[in-house]
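Hi Prof. W.,

I finally got the Purine nucleoside phosphorylase prediction working! I wasn't sure whether to trim anything, so I left the full sequence exactly as given:
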Amino acid sequence: MDGREQDEAQSKYSFEDCQATADWLLSQTAVRPLVGIVCGSGLGGLADALKDQVAFNYRDIPNFPQSTVHGHAGRLVFGTLKGRPCVCMQGRFHLYEGYPIQKITMPMRIFKLLGVETVILTNAAGGLNQDYKVGDIMIIKDHLNMPGFAGNNPLAGPNDERHVYVCLFRFGVRFPCMSDAYDRELQQLAFDVGSELGFSDFLREGVYCVLGGPSFETIAECRMLHKLGADAVGMSTVHEVIVARHCGMRVFALSLITNKAVMDYDSEEKANHEEVLQTGKQRAEQLERLVSTIVTRLEHNNNFA
Ligand SMILES: O=P(O)(O)O[C@H]1O[C@H](CO)[C@@H](O)[C@H]1O
Ligand code: HPA
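And this is what came out:
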């Protein structure tokens, strides 16, 4: 995209568009969520844990994109997790679906306008770290934003300063800090909760690398990403994290290691989406317990970026 196209893309998902969507949702449900959850590939079962659900198909929500990927149901579910008001995206959007990066991250701004303080993102990812096993859950402590290196950042384009000054930092500053993107207290909380639940054997922490997809990586690419410091690779999450931090929400993210990245020319293994969904099913229950227990321990957040 050139500069003009980026400006156009950005202006299509303006503050007013996001506000209209948020207002519509708030008029349809009495739930006032403090926690926003994004379900990764095959991990949509998390939304089913919500009580007293009010659910919307993405196609019925004004200005909302549509899910096109198998394993992403395309529903926005409001409800409570052990009494805490939450909103859950049962299905997310990816760059490779052909949406502008501003559109795939728009739900984060809608979360913010709904009153969400903490965002919990999950994803399915390939394990680059040789110590990782399929089924491990990696708490994300940092990221490598490969599309960002090429200039594809969801914050590219005009930054609507009006809202920084007039609307109490609703969106955010031109140059947001990312060295504190993943909340350290929440990472510690996740380790504590994981240990209480007996999950320590498969709980890890590491660096997630986002690529554009949809093709899986070559062997040379996996080796390079590992050398660069990535522990897991996927095609999502980072763009959402950047936008969530830009507008001052606290972020916690986890990757389910659904497959081992192929690093060896002698290997017969081949990455495939069916394996990704299958591993999701196997760990679904533990992932759900981990996330819902973390949610019950969250404190109110006033951490504006
Ligand atoms: O990141 P989530 O949405 O979990 O999906 C992951 O799974 C798909 C590949 O199987 C890709 O979309 C990758 O990003
Ligand atoms: O190996 C992978 N690579 C990229 N994205 C993925 N999502 C799940 N597994 C993978």
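The pocket of 1-O-phosphono-alpha-D-ribofuranose (ligand 1) is lined by residues 40-41, 69, 92, 94, 123-124, 213, 234-236, 273, 276 (CB under 6 Å). Does that look reasonable to you?

Thanks,
D.
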